[in-house]
From TrEMBL:
GO terms for molecular function: prephenate dehydratase activity. SMART domains: CM_2. It comes from Guyparkeria halophila. Its main location: cytoplasm. It comes from the Bacteria. This is Bifunctional chorismate mutase/prephenate dehydratase.
């Protein structure tokens, strides 16, 4: 006891000077490092256990979204402050990412070249331990995951200003891949140009979604200037870096990557502009305790068809979180519905409701059950 008091008196004295506080910080850092090393050794042990199990051979069984969601929720609950819950969760997101990379580095496909919002979303979902593989388009991300040349993919699903990303929904409908997670990003759009550019571009280029998210701003500030959609924001930034008469729209870090200067900041029409990105995988995710399930249903175009779909869900007390319809590509005036519900497909109430739904649908596919995101959206610039 006397020793502890002597130690705290010495610490109190150190707190009075910058050099003294730094001595204390150095000591804490040594302890954090020691604990991180112990955690990484446990991750090695986890890898050994998973490798022993024949069901756990693929990269898919090393990444455990349900466990990560549980760890992050617990950290938020335990957080004594003064750092806020999101901040400590982000720190632990990176610790788990580093431990996972130490167990088995994961390859993640996303829309490239480097400098897209999708790249930011992939890093938000997997931390900096994931190895990104850039693809020229969203269908190519699906193909890379399906072919097994990467472990996971990250694609944009829905934007708060522009609605669903049709190419993603159509690719989902046409593939066997599963949704394993989601991450929402605030999307702040920047107008960027070559450092030698004048004030009036010949053309403004960006991804079609980004051009649409800035439509009113562009009408007001650059009326009559041609707008051209290209495969990604970073492809647009690349074009602007090669031609001072081309301006691009995209995230700040695309300007940094391609040597451009930001000419106007946050030009999206809706300040709260947010995009939800999906994590695509090949294997189902186990329940975390707080999950959602994405469904794909098809019905023929006859009166009451949608009501017949929703009734078994509401009777089972299951919350419908989102409904989106897309034309069925193979039949005129028939529709497929993308429906998100609360709960995991392995929960009895959800499983029963899905069985009751099945006779009313031409097709019913569970696109995936996965944890409700635990960390609030980071800024997307
Ligand atoms: O618990 C596991 O299965 C682990 O692999 C460990 C760990 C972690 O660092 O906590 C790492 C990666 C997984 O995605 C989940 C958790």
């Amino acid at each position: 006891m006397g020793g502890t008091n002597a130690k705290s008196a010495a610490d109190a004295a150190l707190l009075e000077s910058l050099d003294g506080v730094r001595v204390l910080i150095d000591s804490i850092d040594r302890q954090i490092l020691d604990l991180l090393s112990q955690r990484a050794r446990l991750a090695e042990q986890v890898a050994l256990i998973k490798e022993r199990d024949p069901a756990h051979q693929s990269g898919q069984s090393f990444y455990r979204p349900e466990r990560e969601a549980q760890v992050l929720s617990r950290i938020r609950e335990l957080n004594p402050g003064p750092l806020d819950d999101d901040t400590v969760a982000w720190l632990f997101r990176e610790i788990m990412s580093a431990c996972l990379a130490h167990e088995r580095p994961l390859a993640i496909a996303t829309l490239g070249p480097s400098g897209t919002f999708s790249e930011l979303a992939a890093t938000a979902a997997f931390g900096h331990g994931g190895r990104l593989q850039f693809e020229p388009g969203i269908p190519e991300v699906f193909r890379a995951v399906a072919a097994g040349s990467v472990d996971y993919g990250v694609v944009p699903l829905e934007n708060s200003t522009e609605g669903s990303v049709s190419v993603t929904l159509d690719s989902l409908a046409g593939s066997d891949l599963l949704l394993c997670g989601e991450v929402a990003l605030r999307i702040d759009q920047q107008l960027m140009a070559h450092p030698d550019a004048g004030n009036t571009p010949r053309v403004i280029v960006s991804h079609a979604q980004s051009l649409a998210q800035c439509r009113e701003w562009l009408d007001a500030h650059f009326p009559g200037i041609e707008r051209m959609a290209v495969s990604s924001n970073s492809a647009a930034a690349q074009q602007a870096s090669a031609d001072p008469e081309v301006f691009a729209i995209g995230p700040t870090f695309a300007a940094e990557r391609h040597g451009l200067v930001v000419r106007a900041s946050n030009i999206q029409d809706n300040v709260q502009n947010t995009t939800r990105f999906a994590v695509l995988g090949r294997e189902p995710v186990a329940p975390s305790g707080n999950d959602k399930t994405a469904l794909l249903l098809s019905v023929t175009n006859e009166p009451g068809a949608l009501t017949r779909l929703l009734l078994p869900l509401s009777e089972a007390g299951i919350d419908v979180l989102r409904i989106e319809s897309r034309p069925a590509r193979d039949r005129v005036w028939d529709y497929v519905f993308f429906i998100d519900i609360a709960g995991h497909r392995d929960e009895p109430a959800v499983a029963v409701a899905l069985e009751q739904l099945r006779p009313h649908c031409g097709q019913l596919r569970v696109l995936g059950s996965y944890p409700v995101p635990v960390i609030s959206q980071p800024g997307g610039d």
